[in-house]
Structures are given as C-alpha cells and as structure tokens.
Design a protein that fits this description.
binds zinc ion, Aminopeptidase, Urease, subunit C, domain 1, alpha/beta, 381 residues, 28% strand, 2 domains, globular, single chain
Length: 381
C-alpha cells in the first residue's frame, strides 16, 4: 500500500474537473520525463491528432484507451496520474524499473478528441465508437483496431465513465464497476475472459480497503459491436473499467484516485495474494436504481396528490466548464430508487419553479413549500 499512500505526490493537480481536451492533456504530458514516448497514431473526423503514450520495453504488452466517449474524462485523469508516477524520478524507482523492463504499456489518453472537445459521448459524426467495433466506419475506430492488430497486446483496458444512475441493491452507489466482457452470446468463460475476471477480482480486493460496498460488475450482455466484446472474442483479455459516482464527488476526483489505484494494483504495484474467480462473481451487479436528487413526501397540484420528484443533472458545457443542470427525471412513486441527495417535504404542498404543476424534462430552479414559502431546493449554480 506504500505506493497508494504516496498518491498525492503523483496526483496531477493541473488536470481537474470534468472537461478535458486533447490539447490540455498533452500540454501536461509533454512536460513529463523522457521514459515515455508520445506518438501520433491517427487523426479524428475533424483532423485532430490521436496520440499514444508508450512506456517500457518489456514482453507483456498492455494497451489502454480512455475517452472513447468524449464526455468520460475520469479515467483519463487516472491514466495521467499513472503516467506521472511512472515517469517521476524520485520515488519507488526499483519497482518502476522492474515494471518497465517486464512490461510495455501503451496508453491512448483520448481516443475521441472531437467528442472530448464538444463534451459529447459520440464522435464528430455523431457515432458511438463503442458500437462500431464490427463496422469500423469511423476513423477513430479504425485507429484503435489497427493499433491493436499491430501491437498484439496481452491485455486491453477499455476505460469509461458510468452515469450517477448506477447503484446496488444495498443502496450504495456504484463508484467503480468492472466487466470482463462476454466473448459470445452464451457468455461462456473463455480463457481470455477468465484471465480478465481474475485481474478484476484482484483489483476489487485492493479497492475494498477504500470503497467497500461501492465496487460492482457491469452488465455482461454480449454485443459484438462493443469494442470489449469484439476484442475478447478475438481472444485478447479485455477489462472494462467504469468510473462512477462517489458521494458528493461530481467532479470525480475521488473516483479518479480509485481508478488510478486499480491500475497500479493491476500492473503489480500493490502486493496482494491472488484472488479466486469467485471474488469476481461475488461483486454485486450494477442496477439503475439511483437519481441525483429525490424530494420525498410532497403533495402537488389541485388534487393534493402525494408524490415524489426525482431530479437528474444534465451535464452542459458552458465556457470551458461543465455545469450540472437539474432536470425533473421522474415524478411519482420513487420508493424503489435511492438518491445521492434526499430531500424531505414533510407532506407539504410544493411549488416547482413557482408553479403547481411540474413535468418530466423541466429544468428546476426552485422548489418551495407553498404554505410558508420555505425553500426545499434551490439550484445555486
Ligand atoms: Zn463510455
């Protein structure tokens, strides 16, 4: 755990928040030590350079890519911290030297630079690159496929963010979820799938020390258009990482740390005794059972109907930063849902944006108690 305890020394404080572009990322990475090599591996729809960082000269080849979905930057922040750790020259030098002799690590920090700039999931043609693994219709998909073909990696890491809607039956939110994707519709445990499952089990054991109960397994329905499934089908062990919500951490700096810890554990920087396959299956499955905010025990409208209001933030890019805009997602009985923030109306009749009626999709500025005008919720952003 010594390396994890030293995290603050390789946390890259110049990169924070949710909005992360390729220009910004490489302006930082280029200042790091020369044990890394940065190369251009292709260009995006809009002609932006897609770059890869290479570290080490070892036999075991690990290929990781992040921000395939442009608005999913948490894992990019984590790989920047990892690269900073591997290129610094003051601490843990013998472990790093051993790693770089035995491994070659290829990292594509931003596979979808146009999506990153526009803060969209899709690329500039509006295509979800994680549904393009068979067609390879997009330049970014072709870049990843050709790099993979050329490098023949022993392990692939497919790095993503998941929305705040994911949690577990226990009522805890899904801070980090993993998946060893299926390689066929029957979801057989092939050799490569098993290998990825064991890697996940080992990372989960380390993470339990920090976020016990907040680590899960993503849905494993087979879809050969998904990159992870397609790679696994080709026999390359592939791990899906999903960086999720930690309580109050909308900027995802906490989760970033746990993704970095996972990567350090996976790459052998955290001593652990080998986990069993069972530990993978013991991870709880992700459920879509969370909302950002729920207002409970309210009454609305002329008929004084008892109801609950579920609010979800939309992430909107404004002047280079992400605004979290609250919108009504659900109205009604939300007893099956948990919320990152619970508000209690104590049976009060409420006004949403000064109106008696509210509707799904509506942006929320205020919710007040009609009787005494006390504020139940106000959007301060
Ligand atoms: Zn994603």
């Amino acid at each position: 755990m010594e390396i994890l305890n030293a995290y603050s020394s390789f946390f890259e404080s110049k990169i924070i928040g949710r909005y992360l572009t390729s220009d910004r990322v490489f302006s930082i990475l280029e200042t790091y030590g020369d044990t890394q090599k940065i190369s251009e591996i292709g260009t995006s729809v809009n002609g932006v350079s897609i770059k890869m960082v290479t570290l080490g000269q070892g036999k075991k080849k690990v290929l990781a890519w992040s921000q395939m979905h442009g608005n999913e930057s948490t894992t990019t922040k984590a790989v920047i911290d990892l690269i900073k750790f591997l290129t610094q020259e003051s601490r843990f030098q013998s472990q790093i030297e051993t790693f770089l002799k035995t491994h070659t690590l290829y990292i594509i920090p931003i596979l979808n630079p146009d999506g990153a700039k526009a803060y969209t999931r899709e690329n500039a043609n509006g295509v979800d690159l994680n549904r393009d693994a068979q067609l390879l219709s997009q330049p970014e998909s072709k870049v990843l496929a050709s790099v993979c073909k050329q490098l023949q990696p022993d392990l692939c890491l497919n790095l993503h963010d998941q929305r705040t809607i994911y949690g577990f039956e226990t009522g805890k939110c899904a801070t980090v979820s993993f998946l060893s994707p299926a390689a066929d519709p029957s979801r057989q445990i092939t050799a490569s799938r098993k290998s990825a499952m064991l890697d996940i089990a080992n990372m989960a054991v380390v993470l339990q020390n920090y976020i016990s109960g907040h680590i899960g397994r993503y849905d494993d329905a087979f879809n050969d258009n998904c990159v992870g499934d397609a790679f696994q089908m080709a026999g390359v062990p592939t791990i899906l990482f999903e960086a999720g919500h930690a309580p109050t951490d909308y900027q995802r700096e906490e989760t970033r740390k746990y993704i970095c810890f996972s990567l350090l554990a996976l790459l052998g920087f955290v001593p652990h005794s080998g986990a069993e396959l069972e530990a993978y299956f013991n991870l709880p499955e992700n459920k879509k059972n969370f909302l950002d905010i729920i207002l409970r025990n309210a009454t609305t409208g002329r008929r004084k109907k008892r109801t609950e209001i579920g609010i979800q933030y939309a992430e909107v890019l404004v002047d280079g930063r992400i605004k979290f805009v609250p919108r009504i997602e659900k109205i009604g009985d939300l007893s099956k849902y948990y919320a990152h923030k619970e508000l209690m109306a104590q049976d009060a009749e409420i006004l949403v944006n000064s109106q008696e009626k509210c509707h799904v999709g509506e942006k929320v500025a205020t919710i007040i108690n009609k009787k005494d005008n006390s504020v139940l919720y106000i959007n301060e952003d």
